[in-house]
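Weekly modeling sync, notes
Attendees: S.R. (lead), two postdocs, one rotation student

Agenda item 3: backlog of single-chain predictions. S.R. asked that every request posted to the team notebook include the full sequence so nobody has to chase files. The rotation student volunteered to paste the first one in as an example of the format we agreed on. Action items at the bottom.

Example entry:
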Amino acid sequence: MQKYKTIELAFKKPFSFEKTFYIPSHFPSKLELYENGNYYMSLNFNGQIVGLKFYQKEENNLFVDIFSDTKLSDEYINSLITEIDFRFSLTKDYSEFYDKFKSDKFLSSIIERNCGKHISSIYSLYQNLIISTFLQNATIQRTISMCENMMSRYGSTVNFDGVQMYAFWDIKDFNPEEEDLKKMKVGYRDKNIIRINNYFKENGISDIPLRDLPTPQLVKELLKIFGVGKQTVYYLVSGQFHRTEYLEHIPLWERKILSKYIFDIELQEEKVLVNWFKEKYGNWCGFALSMIFEDIFYQHKQSPLLWLNEILKAGNVKD
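Predicted structure, as returned to the notebook:
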């Protein structure tokens, strides 16, 4: 791919390029790469595959180099920039959160380390659910293997700016039989992948109309999708659609960890914990929970937390 165009992107301050674009917990999918202060990703958008390179020259600017094998219309470029803006919530205003909670008992040190982080969702809804299927009940190495098998068979390989990556397949061209997927060694997930794929095709699901729905209606629509339950809905509404105020359910193992960290008890009732976040953090409750939860594991990596190890082992959760 050749560099087609360079665009300077707008963003709302406070903004941290590294904290927004680089998520260490993401498994190495070869669909994205953060290297030497640059963030690379492939994007199959509106029927065309492009390579994207994000970088800063100075703290107050943000650029994206767009790579393509074909000519891109101005209309396509404009739509692409709008999509990038949403996926990385570049122009969403997070200043209230960082100003309001910079002295909060549980958030002050987190904000000090992560100020300017915006919610990012590099995948479309469909792609997110497929990737989530790879992650189900699997080690990281197993997930990597499944993803590479699927991308090498059904996706594309792209080369730009000295990097080689996979690009997701186009849903309209993805018509595998269960036997085909078994050869990809995805295990029981073959049926789930086909069901998700068929639901999106048959119902013409598109991200953009969903983004405009009020949160209760968005939740209702997401729950119709195969494999989406109340736990997945939280991750999607908060992470995929950037609704920082949404919090209705906390999975059991996360609740155990938060109960110990916040209240120093074995397990707090779900309703009590949900209400605690809502009352304390208001319209930022979902974002606050994710920031606190991620930071617990950050602390654990810096210096192992014995109480967290006990919860993880008891819950048979892979650390």
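Discussion: group reviewed the output briefly. The two ends are 39 Å apart (CA to CA).
Action items: rotation student to repeat for the remaining queue; S.R. to check formatting next week.
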